[in-house]
Amino acid sequence: MAACVLLLVSSLLWVGRADVNCRGTDGRAGAAGAPGRGGWPGVKGEKGEPAVKVEGPADAFAMLRLKGEAGSQGSQGDIGPKGYRGNLGALGRPGPPGPPGLGSRSDGRSQSPQQQRRSAFSAIRSESSYPPFNQIVTFQETAVNKPDDFNAATGYFTCRVPGTYYFNFHSTAKVSICLRLASDALDNKLGFCDFNKNQDQVLSGGAVLQLAAGQRVWLESFRDGQTDNDARDVRDKQIIFNGFLLFPNAA
After folding, report:
1. Which residue intervals define the domain C1q in the entry (predicted)?
2. Residue 128, φ and ψ in degrees, nearest 5
3. In sequence order, what E strands does the chain have?
């Protein structure tokens, strides 16, 4: 009986030592879990202390970082003085030609209504002879004559567009000269004379006239104190006669 107990104890001791020396394999890592939910918002912090002005010069950069509350909008200030006028810019490029106007001309070209209500001329008498007394002054050339309302050979301007016109003349000579501005629209002719004794005599005159269609305007020479030698003078002389429409009558 004692031998059986001893054998059982020996068997148990050998089994205990065998368990200590044996080791199992490591297990696999588990899968990562799902992300957790976001946390609740934190509590608002307390309001900071107001800025305190320190003694001495303020830090300009620090002052810029201190943003105060927006003030109310101020009232509009007075208008400032007008600035200086700038220099005139360069001349721009000419624009493209405009479309043909309406109307018609004797040469077959079209003419707009605005062009049909224009009139201007400038005629030049360059003869050295003295203009005959009490006769209409005629001219040798026209610098401008649009649209042919002035006849240089007869000296007549004939109104085509009723309206208000301005006429003037200038003459130069080395003797005294007298000229009248005459018109069917005038009850009396307008006379101008120059009797100065200078080397060159300059005479000018002009008037604004209201003309109806068909009324004429012209210049004529007259005698008022000139000598016979003045009438026979053949030194250089020149008379320029101008006229143009200021504005037509209302249609």
Report:
1. 114-251
2. -85, -15
3. 120-125, 135-136, 141-146, 150-151, 156-158, 163-173, 177-183, 190-194, 201-211, 216-221, 238-248
pTM above 0.85, yes or no: no
> Tokens 């009438």 identify what position?
231
DSSP state of 210: E
Q: Give the CATH number for residue 154.
A: 2.60.120.40
Task: Provide the Cα torsion 52, 58, 59, 60; round to 10°.
Answer: 110
The whole-angstrom separation of Cα 80 and Cα 82 is 7
Mean pLDDT of 120-126: 96
Instruction: Identify whether 180 is part of a domain.
Output: yes
pLDDT digit string, tens, across residues 100-111: 655 444 444 555
Indicate the number of domains in the chain.
1
